Amino acid sequence: MSEKLTYEELEEQIQALVCAEKERQWVEKALQESEDRYRGVVEDMPVLVCRFLPGGEITFVNRSYCEYFNRTMDELIGSNFLSLIPQFDQQVVLNNISALTVEAPTQSHEHSVIAPNGDIRWQRWTNRALFDARGDATEYQSIGEDITEQKWAEEALRESERRYRNIYDNAQIGLYRSRIRDGKIEMANHRMAEIFGYASPEECVEKYIAIEHYVRPELRDALLKRLQQHGKFSNFEAPIKKDDGSIIWIQFSGILSEEKGCFEGVAADITDRRQAEEALRKSEEKFRTLVEESPLGISLITSDARYQYVNPAFQKILGYTIEDIPTGREWFRKAFPDDKVRHQVIQSWMENENQPDVGLSKPVVFPVTCKDGSRKDIQFRSVKMENGDILVLYEDITECSKMERLLREAQKFEAIGTLAGGIAHDFNNLLMGIQGRASLMALELGASHIQREHIDAIQEYVQSATTLTRQLLGFARGGKYEVKPIDLNALLRDSATMFGRTRKEIQIHINCRRSPLVVEADMGQIEQVLLNMYVNAWQAMPDGGKLFLETDLVTLDETYCEPHQIPAGPYAKITIMDDGRGMDETTRQRIFDPFFSTKEKTRGTGLGLASAYGIIKHHAGLITVHSEVGHGTTFCIYLPKSDKNVPLEDASVGGPIRGSETILLVDDEEMVIEVSQAMLKRLGYTVWVANSGNQAIEQILAKGKDLDLVILDLVMPGIDGGTTFDRIREIEPKMPVLLSSGYTIDGKAHHVMSRGCNGFVQKPFNIIELSEKVRNVLDEAKRSTQT
Fold this sequence. Notes:
The chain is of the alpha+beta class. The protein has six domains: about 1-35; about 45-145, Beta-Lactamase (2-Layer Sandwich), CATH 3.30.450; about 170-275, Beta-Lactamase (2-Layer Sandwich); about 295-395, Beta-Lactamase (2-Layer Sandwich); about 480-640, Histidine kinase-like ATPase, C-terminal domain (Heat Shock Protein 90); about 660-785, Rossmann fold. Strands 11, 12, 13, 14, 15 and 16 form a six-stranded antiparallel sheet that branches. Helix 14 packs across helix 19, helix 15 packs across helix 16 and helix 16 runs antiparallel to helix 19.
């Protein structure tokens, strides 16, 4: 039996028990308070907190866990946390948990979860395993957080890096990082490698060192200087040697790299651009040379009508500099001082400028007043450019205009001359009948016959009419009858002396070249020209005046002769100058027109100067006129100089020369046949008649051996005189032929004469002229036969 406790001992034990109970209660209270504080902290943590058993059954979750999955604590506790994880990630989670040991009780991992809305989100968990004494896991404590945004950011970063790498590798511009010290490439993309001629970026990084590839090393020094001063450089261009040694042009831009001692940037192959720029520079240089050296004036006018450029030819042609005409207003005012002309030019300019299409406009011609006051005909061509500016071409066509006027005059004279020649030919045939009959009557009647006065008057009238036809034929440029060397000095003196006897009120001053001035011409025609000039001068000085006549030998060059269509060379020049009233420009331009006259009807036909013009032109010469109102008129006549000598004049026969030969007379005009036949018979000849070329050929075939001479008309219907002549010579090669025509010896007659025709007689002719021509041809033919 145990020893009985004393009261004091019992009281002490009771007191100890009370103290122990109080201590236990305090500890339990402290523990409860600690658990409450811990639970409060865990409950309020923003992270996810969870405890679960080894089988996955949840034993605790905090408020954040519940809110994240949008479930209550009661719904979650007791459920398996694996139900919140997609099936494809569940095994990964289990493997991570199973790997926890006593030695390594904690581990972190990431996995996906199924959000309440069905989306897949990402979480990162740190798991801690609790083990019993045997080392078996009894529970797991896990703390997690949502890392979906981080995952997305990481994925975006990876995608960005992938895209950047793709862009970097496939960029069509070179990307690089280079070492400052020697220019070694430390990083390059495919394009950079391609630019330098390498197969890959790796090869470029391995081989390329800038200091070995700069064609001009000083350019790299300049690049580094910019980099040092500004920390960057832009659009720096330099020629670089590729790996194969060829030269290309590279444009670099760069900036100091974060990596010490390097810079990085972009590079572009600008070889094509540099070549294009060089080609453009050369093209511009050629264009500038063309513009500067162009014979055409060129100006560039801005869209606001300001002159931006004029080339040297513009200044040479017109005299104006760009300072003289800064604006279109100044140009129009100075170049076209006449208000009417200026209005026309501005209107034409506005029409061209308002054209909607760019390109070349139609050319226009206007007279322009140059800076020195002279006037020139300028052809304008304007080109409207895309930017609204206008390029204008100026061509001086003053000489061309003169040539065109000369050509128009020549064509006009040729047309009228053809008509005048035809009229003169027909008129000469009529005069032939009158002249022939009158000369026959004069032979029959004695000098004292009562009708002789009338016969002589008829012959004088015929001569006057013949002079008129000579003028018509002269105008028709067919006025040369008998061309031979003549001395113009002698002809000028003789004609002036003869004219001076009838015009005492005119003082004539003659200044002839000392040595003979010989030309080949028809003396009668040139004398007619001179007399026409004298008469024109006399009519310009109704109150008397002075007439100055001068001869000289001059040489005309190609520049002077070409517009007038005459050959260059030595020319005899006759100057006829009066101090009369002169004439205005309008009159001067028409002075050589046929039938144009400023005189009253009784003082001229208007053919004098026109025929003079035709005669001189037909002698391969030139006639010019200069005149001003109140300052007289000067005519200059130019005829080709001849080196031949002037022949001595033969003595003329006083009366008709008779004969007894047989002559075939060929003419289509019955009147001409009748009178010619009568004159020939009167002279003693036997005359056969043919009305056409065919009849003439038939008669020669039939009895040509009995003929001594053929007088052949040139112009006939059917077979003309030229063809008939050729057939006659085929039948009778030695048959003498005397050509007869109302036209002059030039033209068709000249061609027939050049083929061996024996002579020419101009209609109308009288019996004495006919007798001389016939006798000369017959006698010459006999002499040729005898020799």
